[in-house]
Structure formats: C-alpha cells, structure tokens
Amino acid sequence: MNLLYKIYQIIIAAPLIIVATVLTSATTVVGCLLGNPDFWGYYPGKCWSMFICRILLLPVRVTGYENVQKDTSYVFVANHQGAFDIFLIYGFLCHNFKWMMKQELRHMPFVGIACAKARHIFIDRTSPHSIKKSIDTARETLRGGISVVVFPEGSRTKTGEVGRFKKGAFLLADDLRLPIVPITINGSFQALPSTKGLSFVKRVPLTVTIHKPIPMVADEEEVSDRIEASRSIIMDGLNVR
Fold first, then answer.
1. pTM: predicted TM-score of the whole model, two decimal places
2. Rounded to whole angstroms, what are the CA distances from 236 to 32, 45, 176, 200?
3. Are 150 and 76 in contact, with CB atoms under 8 Å apart?
C-alpha cells in the first residue's frame, strides 16, 4: 500500500498540484489587480490548500471553530511542524487572514508574487526601520475582521518538538490591541517534516485545534506571560506518542 501511494503521488498528485499552484497564483494575481485583495488573496489559496490535502488523500479534522468570531481580527499563532501547516491553516481555519512571512519567501516562483499582490505581510528584519514599516503595514491591513497568522518559532521544527517562541507576533498583537489565538497542529511533522530535497508524503491523520483567545494588554511582562501561555496551550494540545 505504501508503494502504491508513492506511485500515486508521482503519477497523479504531483502533476495536479503543480497545475493547481500555477492556476491559483495566476487567479490571485489577476483578481487582486482587478480589485478586492482581501477576497482574492484568501479564497483561491483556501481552495488550493484544501485541494492539495484532498488529492493527497489526507484526513483532516478541525476542532474549536466556536472559539473565534468571523468578523473579529485576531493574531493566530501556531506550532510549525512541517510543510502541511500552511495547507491546514489556509484551507481549514475558515477565517480570512494575512500571512506574516519571511522576506525571503517573496522570491518563491509563482507563490511569491501571488503573496505580494494579496498583501500578505513580509517581515524585513534587516533594520529597526524595516521592522517598523512591517508593523505599520500590518496595522493598515488588519481591519474589518481580517486577521494575521504567524508561526512564532520562525521556522519548521527539525525534531517534532515545539521551539522557542519569538516576540514579534505578540508585540504586534499588543500594538494593534488584538487577542492572541493559539493553534495546535498535529500530524504535519509525520506527513512531511522539514527536509532538504524532494520527499514523499506519508498518509497520516492531520488535526488542527483552535484554542480560546488570549487577550493582550500593554505591559511588557504581560506580553511575556502570554508568550509562555500560548506555547503551553499549544503544547498541551499535541498528541503524545
């Protein structure tokens, strides 16, 4: 069965995913140029992510939708297990948002230009002025129920364990007076961990747990407390193997 699944990925899934990626990028760029980047920057990517999970026959389960309101802006923070974290959140969070991503991702073929036109937020850490500009961009973008999603670890885990959380997302939430919503992802590391080169996907159950919001206050110690609280909540939601 494992061999058949690998053959299926090569012959059927991979070509369809490539075509879907190109079409999604083109649709996003054209739609955003015509107007309403909040719509075209979210729904094509959502459909693309759902398609990838479905074409790879991956079972997905989401809990906690009742913990967030659709017309409210949040800063979502999630553990970063593997490549499928992006598809799980984009496809199944069901809340219009902008990604906060590293500046280097702007140069990815097809995806980079689509993210730029969709007004996702690129973080340039080269100088304090660049960081401030990124926060100003986020302030202008996150209105009318639009949220932001951040992986506070900064990069995918190499071991499956949750790494140290950086302060950026939490300072942004404090600056914009937005609640933090922790998200726990399970199964992504097993499906496709962070590896160099091409790798086959393993068919494992994927789960997303949306936890209750944590309100933010303008106090440095309180921000630190919420970083630890968010990390603890996310870790409590991980499957113990």
1. 0.88
2. 39, 29, 27, 29
3. yes
Q: What is the mean pLDDT of residues 47-54?
A: 96
Quick: pLDDT tens for 155-186. Answer: 777 777 888 888 878 877 887 788 999 999 99
Separation between Cα atoms, residue 222 and residue 237, nearest integer Å: 23
pLDDT in tens, 89-106: 999 999 999 988 777 777
As a whole number of angstroms, the distance between CA 158 and CA 116 comes to 28
Please give the Cα distance from 216 to 70 (Å, whole number): 19
Kindly report the three-state secondary structure assignment for every residue of 214-231.
ECCCCCHHHHHHHHHHHH
Instruction: Measure the CA angle with vertex 146, ends 236 and 84; round to 5°.
Output: 45
97-121: average pLDDT: 82
The SS3 of residue 181 is: strand
Q: Distance (Å, rounded) from C-alpha 148 to C-alpha 86?
A: 13
Q: How far apart are CA 164 and CA 148, in angstroms?
A: 20
Sheet holding 180-186, edge to edge: 60-63, 206-210, 180-186, 75-78, 147-150, 97-102, 121-123
CB 86 within 8 A of CB 151: no
To 5 degrees, how large is the angle CA 17–CA 19–CA 24?
Answer: 90
pLDDT tens string 15-43 = 999 999 999 999 999 999 998 888 999 99
